Amino acid sequence: MSCYYFELIAMEWCSCIGDPHCRQLTQSLTDTPIALNWPCGYTLITDQCDPSQTGHASLFIQAKMTESMHNPGHVFVKQLVIQFEGSIIVLQNRTVTVDKQPINVFPYISTPYMIGKSYLGHFFIRMANGIEIYWDGNHGVKFAVPFALKVCGICGHNTKAFTGPDYRAGPGRIAQQCTRHDIPYAIGERTSDLESFARSWGFFVEDDIPCIKDCEGP
Fold first, then answer.
1. Rounded Cα–Cα distance for residues 57 and 47 (Å)
2. Which positions fall inside the VWFD domain (predicted)?
């Protein structure tokens, strides 16, 4: 039997809610959240942050976006994909799968994580590295990240030592499939604008029509 206990740990919070407005880990409540208005997918949080880092990351939290039918030009989180310690957890609507297997009994306890579900259909995931994830079963997700854990992504670096939004670039994987989205920044380099920052953390979603059209361009 696996045992989980909860302790008071200093945390930073990140959230992506709505169409979507993402508040980064180091943003104060008075700062304006960043707005992601492009389709495809984005890495929200990963522990692969150092350009010199070799090997595979142990953590990827990625969001697949889709365009709103009621508000064209705006996107929202359609699906949350968590890759952690060899497992792939997928949250979409009010369902969850682990390694493609539907999970219907909660709490679901594995060695590196625990998944719970509230009576409202909200999901809670507590990971062995201390990260907590809250998915509302619709289009909103929140993360709590321990100060001691070094992460980066759309949620920003939790080691930021400057004011304002954290626009440090990601690996630019989307440029491998979308040649019109050239990312002229090295990983970790501060970009000059929100779109360049967002694209640098983006990835291609092959079964999403808005993403395909966005890659093809006008």
1. 6
2. 12-212
Let me know: does 54 contact 92? Beta carbons within 8 Å: no
Which residue is it, tokens 């707005």?
35
Residues 6+ apart with CB under 8 A from 188: 49, 50, 51, 152, 168, 169
CA distance 41 to 63: 6
pTM for the predicted model, two decimal places = 0.88
Question: What are the angstrom distances between the C-alpha of 114 and each of 24, 84, 103, 144, 211?
Answer: 24, 12, 12, 15, 32
Closest to 185 in 3D by CA, of 193, 35, 155, 177: 193
What is the C-alpha to C-alpha distance for residues 212 and 190, in angstroms, rounded to an integer?
Answer: 27
Can you tell me the distance from the alpha carbon of 110 to that of 76, in angstroms, rounded to the nearest whole number?
Answer: 29
What tens digit of pLDDT does each residue of 164-191 get?
789 999 988 887 788 777 788 888 899 9
Integer Cα distance of 126 and 198 in angstroms: 27
Compute CA distances 3 → 7, 108, 124, 211, whole Å: 13, 12, 16, 42
Residue with tokens 């626009």: 167
Q: Are 95 and 89 in contact (CB under 8 A)?
A: no
Across the range 31-51, mean pLDDT stands at 86
The pLDDT value recorded for residue 56 is 61
Q: What is the pLDDT of residue 50?
A: 76
